[in-house]
């Protein structure tokens, strides 16, 4: 849980998705602004020099120049009464925000899965290194025994060299396992922005949570109702419908209330000083007649995009079923592997003990014994990885069904301990 919460605040990809969501939220006030009054003020002050020579408004033989001040300002107010595209634009903005909210939820789900994958990837690397170290220690102990027996003439030189080869191989395996820990730790740092030296582990005796429900069909039904990508695509289809209506609305007239007040003051000039004021208010109707075919083209374009969005709904519905079924089968397979590998580990340990006894009495070689040691540690590594894969598959199943929450992370978290 701590890793996930840290990722929420520091993961660049999720923070980018959050910034996109905040940007989409601004669509509503922008759409609302098209329906609210618009008020503008314009003012100007000028020093004017006028010169007239010749005839001027019936006066002949005028030769005169004058410099004076001119002040003017105007206030204009407009209010939309009917603009169908503006009203549809407000509805579209609200629907777009709904889709953005779904996409942000999907980004949060992806972060949950990514954090869990990196977390269990690090645990798996730590377990692998632990098993590699234990295996090397077991092989080294066997080498010491084999050297003593070789010096006593009990085992052959070939047997001794076979054990020495196993020591070299396990040493190389341990180095590789240690390097994998650093790679896995760096991957976790990439998601969270924090380098973790220690993380809570999953105890060997921890009981894994069961799938609830255990059958596939309820999960498929949930996916059809709650899968985030499917819901977002459905919202996208609704947006496409609104785009068609918005394009069609360009054929309709618009109606606005227009008001203005103009003040003009000139303290001189050839025609004399004057002051003017003009106040007006009224309705303006604008009726489009022909726009060169642009509106019709935009309607066809919006319809084509709407057809695409509707087709993509079926694609997302099929993808949701596929992802849910795959995650469910992966979880079932991982759970079955956990059960089988628990028995395999027990059997491998019994085989190792039996091989040790046989080696002690001289009926089996050291290479035979080390083969059982290798099989035991391989079974333990596979069991460790299968447990992590089951937990990850369970989280991915809930994501595919659209029901993944922080409570699911808490459910896994309860089984971890430092």
Q: List the helices and strands in order.
A: HHHEEHHHHEEHHH
Q: Tell me the Rg in angstroms.
A: 39 Å
Strands, count: 4
Q: Give the terminus-to-terminus CA distance.
A: 13 Å
Average pLDDT value?
91
Task: Name the poorly predicted regions.
Answer: none
Structural class: alpha+beta
**CA-based shape:** elongated
Describe it for me?
- The chain has 418 residues and is of the alpha+beta class.
- It is built from 10 helices and 4 strands.
- The protein has a 4-stranded antiparallel β-sheet.
- Strand 3 and strand 4 form a beta hairpin.
- Helix 1 crosses helix 4.
- It is elongated.
- The model has no long low-confidence stretch (mean pLDDT 91).
Short description:
With 418 residues, the chain is an alpha+beta fold. It is built from 10 helices and 4 strands; from the N terminus they run αααββααααββααα.
SSE order and pairing:
Blueprint: H1 2-10, H2 12-25, H3 27-33, E1 38-56, E2 59-82, H4 84-151, H5 157-192, H6 216-226, H7 228-248, E3 254-266, E4 274-286, H8 294-360, H9 366-400, H10 406-413
Antiparallel strand pairs: 1-2, 2-3, 3-4
